[in-house]
Amino acid sequence: MAEVAFAGQGTEVTFTQQGMWVTERNVSVGTAYHMPLIVHLNGELDVGALLAACAAVVDRHPMLGSVVTEVDNGLRLVPGAQVPVRHASAQGVHAAGMHAAQDVRAAQDVRAVEQGAHAVQDVHAVEQGARAVEQDPRTAAEQGVHAAVREEILREFDLEKGPLARFTLFEIDPERHLLLFVAHHLVFDGQSKDILVRDLAALYNGEPPPPLPAVDHGRAERDRVASMLPAAREFWKPRWRDPGETLVLGRSLRSRRTGEGRVVRFTADPSIPGLTRFEVLLAALHVCLLGYGNAEVTTAVDLSTRPSEAAGHIGLFVNELPVASSPSPETTFRAFATTLRAELREVYRFRQVPLSRAMPRIRPHAALVPVSVSYRTRHDPDPVFTGLDASVEWTVSNHAVRGALHLQCVDGPGGLEVGLRHDPEAVPGAARVATDLCLLLERAIHDPDQRLNELLENEMASVTTLTDQVREIWEEVLGISPIEDHDDIFDLGGHSLTITQIIARMRKRLDVEVSLDDFFDNPTIAGVVDSLADETGNDLTGTDGD
């Protein structure tokens, strides 16, 4: 057996599993802990072999078939309901597509922002979970797959009975298939995605991987944590304080709950000699938050706790810990990033110890702080499925976000891909955040010895100028001054005619185009400026920690 077989009263849960189980029981988290993955398979697929490979993966990794249950006032991992491996035929998908077509078309609202070498896309939650397909016209089968994928991702898990994982193979046509895997975070993490696809490909190719050593993950973790706990408590006592507000684009973010998740995606190359790419990205995020008015910055970071003996095991090996800084505007980016690197190294010493164990008075929340980051590195290319053109969507959206903002980063052979997941109610201008972060990264990489106040001054200049120019036009047309960034034009007495006049003056004076619909959707100066960063796109892909 790959892992310690469940017997009697099962095996111990890890501290992270325990904390997540408690959160699920006490906090409304929706689909925030759903972890979807999509494999696209083009060519002559051996359906029977793939379905058998899915079943073999579950046999190899009993964690996928487990649930958490209460035993003698404690939590144990025990076998749950059988993990389903379903095959949705083209006929069934076609029928679903005929019913879903109108809703899917109504949901299409994909926006893109181009800034320098970076591409940013704002993809609404209803669009995520399926790869981009031909839009004009879209086949009924593709419509059906799109709708069915979203439905499967959103479908609840039965935490008591299970299963906590499921496979669904969708047939678009005889030469195109999509394999959707969805697991609950209790039994699966970001690195588990690589392990699952690697094992799946090997089993499909008729090359089963060697057996895994037996490991009781919960017991091994408790032994490690027990030895580190006294030092961890001393470490966190002066560092941890309950997070207050985080300012982003003039809004106070306090959310540590889950909310509707939308995604803004961009690519980056955060390379500065002497620093890791993650350290550069995290430093840039802290500086960006400084620019938004936060003298003290705290973000949460998901850190891998996977020990060497669990290298090939599917499971939950991650710990969320806070990283704090006080960026001085007079210091250089390189100096600040180096200081933050030192703080990270201190945090890394206690990455195995959940904060709730070191500081037991922390209340359960879906998110530790309002802004968080997950980052993982993929060294290998996508696995090969013999005879097929296969590709993997590693960061499919679960249509939810923990906290207000979460940067989900995957640094793979093709570069660093970042999905800025956000609650649209808390951060309606998330595209602007992505653009600001991209610009700051570009300038910091170009000259890492530039002072932070200079970086921020340069970064915000173009946006500030545009905001002031738009404000001037509003004040001219409406005959009101001053008008604040978030004043609603309809509350100021605006109507269709005045909006048309504003659009015409913006077109003539600023050489920009805003549609009437965009204006009605974003009836503030800040909203209009954000919409100017958007260009229509046709990508339905969505992008965890994961």
Please give a quick description of this structure.
The chain has 546 residues and is an alpha+beta fold. It has helices at residues 15-26, 47-60, 90-107, 140-154, 190-204, 217-236, 277-291, 333-348, 355-358, 430-446, 452-478, 496-510, 516-521, 525-531; strands at residues 11-12, 34-42, 66-71, 74-79, 85-88, 110-115, 118-123, 165-173, 176-184, 246-248, 251-253, 258-260, 262-268, 297-304, 318-325, 371-377, 389-393, 400-402, 405-412, 415-422, 535-536. The chain contains 14 helices and 21 strands.
Question: How would you describe what is shown here?
Answer:
Helices cover 37% and strands 22% of the residues. It has helices spanning 15-26, 47-60, 90-107, 140-154, 190-204, 217-236, 277-291, 333-348, 355-358, 430-446, 452-478, 496-510, 516-521, 525-531; strands spanning 11-12, 34-42, 66-71, 74-79, 85-88, 110-115, 118-123, 165-173, 176-184, 246-248, 251-253, 258-260, 262-268, 297-304, 318-325, 371-377, 389-393, 400-402, 405-412, 415-422, 535-536. The radius of gyration is 24 Å and the shape is globular. The two termini are 26 Å apart. Residues 1-7, 93-138 and 534-545 have low confidence and may be disordered.
Features:
14 helices, alpha+beta, disordered C terminus, 9-stranded mixed β-sheet, 546 residues
Provide the residue-averaged pLDDT: 84
Q: How large is the radius of gyration?
A: 24 Å
The percentage of residues in β strands lies in: 15-25%
End-to-end separation: 26 Å
Name the poorly predicted regions.
1-7, 93-138, 534-545
From the spread of the alpha carbons, the general shape counts as: globular
Task: Sketch the major β-sheet.
Answer: 9 strands, mixed
- Helical residues, percent: 25-40%
